[in-house]
Amino acid sequence: MKLIEPLIAWKDEMTALRRDIHAHPELAYEEVRTSDVVAKNLESWGIPVHRGLGITGIVGTIKGRNENGKAVGLRADMDALPMQETNTFEHASKHEGKMHACGHDGHTAMLLTAARYLAENRDFDGTVYVIFQPAEEGFSGAKRMIDDGLFEKFPMQAVFGLHNWPGMPAGTFGIVPGPIMGGSNLFKITLEGKGAHAAMPNLGHDPIMAAVQLAQSLQTTITRNLDPLDPAVLSITQIHSGTADNVIPDNAELRGTVRTLSEEALDLIERRMAEITDLTAQAFDCQSNFVFSRKYPPTINHANEAALCVEVAKSIVGPENVDQTIRPSMGAEDFAFMLKAKPGCYVWLGNGDGDHRSKGHGLGPCTLHNGSYDFNDNLLPIGASYWVELAKRWLAKT
Predict the structure, then answer these.
(1) What H or E segment, with its residue span, contains residue 209?
(2) Number of neighbouring beta carbons within 10 Å of residue 348
(3) Which pLDDT tens digit goes with each residue over 282-301?
(4) Peptidase M20 dimerisation domain: from which residue to which, for each copy (predicted)?
(5) Exposure of 192 by Cβ count < 10 A (0-12 exposed, 13-18 middle, 19+ buried)?
(6) pLDDT value at position 362?
(7) Which superfamily does 5-181+299-396 belong to?
(8) Alpha-carbon gap, residue 165 to 373, rounded angstroms
């Protein structure tokens, strides 16, 4: 493993910073303290800071030896999750019902470490923008920063992201071109029937029977309409109807999520869901209302940028520790919005299986969005070395 020497020496300092952020988690668009910590550190290293993109987002500008018009963006997310931490070690969350259960504290600390090194050395030509993004967890912070002028105010030609990945050996990388994370979308279907006494169903139009039939029929969009080689998931997660045992209700509601690895698959699924909903409701003499909300698009890596990330990762952890055959996850990531706007790549950095956790961790597994999770601080110099080397190599490209 070839890590940058000063980053190794800074590990304890950056660990303390990461654990401080972990102990003070903040939810989407509430990352005020976290933003203050980020800005204070960047400014102390002589890095100009722009605040306010995406409400609490921060962009730091690190200029190299010479201006050559080339610029690259490196992005970390800052927000926590609205869930209770079950760990009891010293740096556990101090805020009830809030927790860094996805490692955004570690992502922030790694990028800060890289920014410090780049600012102190500036042994590159061009500009590095370090992007600290709010509200990744379901509130489209990346899109909000873009809408607020991220790429106009900071004109970069490429942008890169990184996420820790529990279950992968600590310090290994997973990198693939094309889709790496699924798109996240929500739907709500309301069925309006005609209520009646349960003993006299012929006098009503039963929305529950329509909902039952619809729940089965919607799955045919995956099994009969979609190419079997184009992965997708349609999950109905809620069905609500009725208030009494002997009453057929007036209405029923179904809610759920659709995940795909391509927007073409999503277009097909949304269209077929709407058609099936309408026709099924008609078959049961009900009225329907179908609402489909596109939240995050699939995260799709650009081939050239993914190839560069592979080269960089191999130079740091060795070829044997870079997995180019990882299977994409149907979990979603709003870095997808940035990759739709600019070339770039999103990689996974193995977080291990939880053996790194301090005494006092919860009894659950060390997986993302779990109350027993904690970021592996041994990754700090690895991730920071990757960021530094990636920025320098991208800027050095002809």
Answers:
(1) helix 207-217
(2) 22
(3) 999 999 999 999 999 999 99
(4) 185-276
(5) middle
(6) 86
(7) Zn peptidases (3.40.630.10)
(8) 11
What does the domain layout of the chain look like in residue ranges?
Answer: 5-181+299-396, 183-296
For the chain, first and last CA: distance in Å?
Answer: 27
> Is 215:189 a contact under the CB 8 Å cutoff?
no
Q: Using CB atoms within 10 Å of the CB of residue 320, give its burial: 0 to 12 exposed, 13 to 18 middle, 19+ buried.
A: exposed
| Residues contacting residue 58 through CB under 8 Å, at least 6 positions apart | 35, 38, 39, 42, 49, 50, 51, 131, 132
3-state secondary structure of 325: coil
d(CA 201, CA 196): 6
The string over 382-392, giving b where at least 16 C-beta atoms fall within 10 Å of a residue's C-beta and e elsewhere, is bbbbbbbbbbb
CA distance 370 to 53: 29
Q: Are 50 and 110 in contact (CB under 8 A)?
A: no
CA dihedral sign, ordered 213, 214, 218, 219: negative
Q: Note the pLDDT of residue 398.
A: 63
In the chain, the amino acid numbered 280 is T
Q: How confident is the model at residue 397 (pLDDT cuts 50, 70, 90)?
A: confident
Pair of tokens at residue 262: 């391509």
7-66: per-residue pLDDT in tens? 999 999 999 999 999 999 999 999 999 999 999 999 999 999 999 999 999 999 999 999
At 358 the three-state DSSP class reads coil
DSSP E strands in the chain: the ranges are 49-53, 57-63, 71-77, 127-133, 158-166, 173-174, 178-181, 183-192, 196-197, 232-241, 247-248, 251-260, 287-296, 299-301, 322-323, 344-352
Helix, strand, or coil here: 32?
helix
Pairing of strands 57-63, 127-133: antiparallel
According to CATH, the topology of domain 183-296 is Alpha-Beta Plaits (3.30.70)
> What one-letter code names the amino acid at 6?
P
Pairing status of strand 127-133 against strand 71-77: parallel
**Residue 73 to residues 155, 346, 347, Cα–Cα distance (Å):** 9, 12, 14
Give the phi and the psi of residue 249 in degrees, each rounded to 5.
-75, 170
Read off the pLDDT of residues 347-386 as tens digits, 9 standing for 90 and up: 999 999 888 988 889 888 999 999 999 999 999 999 999 9
Enter the pTM of the model: 0.94
